[in-house]
Amino acid sequence: MAGFGAPRWRFLWRCAASPLALRRPGRALLWSRGYGQDAGSEANKKKSDVTKPCFMDELVQSLLSKMTGLDLQKVFRPIKQELKPPTYKLMTEKQLAEATRKAIEEAKELLKMPPVLSEREPIDDVLAEDRILEGTETIKYVFTDTTYSTPHRERFIVVREPSGVLRKASWEERDRMIQVYFPREGRKLVPPPIFKDENLKTVFREDRHEEVLNLCIAQFEPDSADYIRVHHQTYEDIDKHAKYDLLRSTRHFGGMVWYLVNRKKTDGLLIDMIQRNLIDDATCLINLYHMLHPDCQSAKEVKEEDAYGVDLIKVFMKTESKKVGYIELALQAYQEALASSAAL
Amino acid sequence: MNACPPSPPRHVLWGRLFLNPFAVSSRNRGFPEEVLARVIMVHLAHLLMKNYHGGHVAIRLALGGCANRPFFRIVAAHNKRARDGKYLEQVGCYDPLPNSHNEKLVGLNIERIKHWIGCGAHVTKPVEKLLGLSGFFPLHPMTITNAERLRKRRALKAETASEEETPERHFLQHFNRENSNQIPLFFQ
């Protein structure tokens, strides 16, 4: 932590105390309106079925958060905000430990993973058909129920078409109306052009994946098509160029791992982990893989043999991975490095 | 009944209320104190209690916005208040100009509308029509009547337009290409 040679007690408070509102746009009301309920109900259903673990299961979340890591330097790195001169505090060792503990708690809060939901079903529900009104209007009316206490998911938003049909509003109309009457910080009425495919490519070339994902979380609902599309494109790009470290110690890492494990594209990530000497993370990854795909060969072999650590990786490598050669090389390099450091 | 001092005009009374309500003016000096107290209180009381007699709460549209840009707030206000004056509560809004998606936006605080209607508020016709279109109320009869009238008018227009065309067509049908030289010149 004090790798610069700066006095320890000065370092910690140099870049802390950024208001949460500035750091994460739209964080204030972020998950307070109903996602916990959706995900929780999904989890309950899945637990009773015992077929497939859900993203929000405690075990899955613990594995993912272990892999995410907790690099305080990265979590509390300076972000673009109002220029203030840094504050320095003189502390005892005990106070520093206390401050570190608090910082870790705050970091855990910041690292809470956004929910992973399946795409929402389109709404097409007709409430009334009054064909008498056909031809009287050329413009549709959108009626929004602005009662403050109803959750946004249960709000009534109806559209009276010029043909006289009274229907429920589609998801895009709903999002737009809720943003008009209950504007959320960081969310625009019209999605910014950064989310178009061509612009995403430019952003990826500049290694700004985390920024795009933060903007995406602020702008879209977690089960909207755009949110899922942007996230999948980001994860694909990271996997293609092996830029896993960009998301490590951010709240998007868990989602990325979940995506890769579900599609069995874990080889690149595994190689990266071994190269950075994160064998525990690698074992977590393989355990998660076995949880999600209990029928695969390596899972069965591991159940029989009960392997740990490097052996587990070797079993997995032989059975499931496609880039066997690369993983073998990485493992060899790691073991040589281990041997040489042990010798020293 | 004891003699009472005459009541001064209303604007004078308001001024005295803010300066010194208890100053005894020259006109009041001759009278006993109890009489004075009763009269002053009676004169001021009807100014302080400015309730409307026989009024009711109305849910109606209050116009706002700028020149060539109207914007309505749906508002619960006393019946006798000015259209854009002090209201009890804003209960919705209505934008009569369509936006870029060709929609007219109407926001309705249904919970509070229900509350005011439960308190006995009257709803004006435009708001009733809007609520009817939204589905919260049944469709207003005038909406249906106007729709039917418009339909009839359009049907009538279409009929008369087609009638004007058809006599000409009937006449010229008898002449086809072969004998077109026989069509009188003023019909060609």
From TrEMBL, chain A:
One GO location term (cellular component): mitochondrial small ribosomal subunit
Protein name: Uncharacterized protein
Domain of life: Eukaryota
Molecular functions (GO terms): structural constituent of ribosome
Pfam families: MRP-S22
Source taxonomy: Eukaryota, Metazoa, Chordata, Craniata, Vertebrata
TrEMBL record, chain B:
Keyword Thylakoid among record annotations: no
Signal peptide: none
GO MF assignments: structural constituent of ribosome
GO biological process: mitochondrial translation
Subcellular location: Mitochondrion
Keywords: Mitochondrion, Ribonucleoprotein, Ribosomal protein
A Gene Ontology cellular-component term: mitochondrial inner membrane
Family: Belongs to the bacterial ribosomal protein bS16 family.
Protein name: Small ribosomal subunit protein bS16m
Organism: Gopherus evgoodei (Goodes thornscrub tortoise)
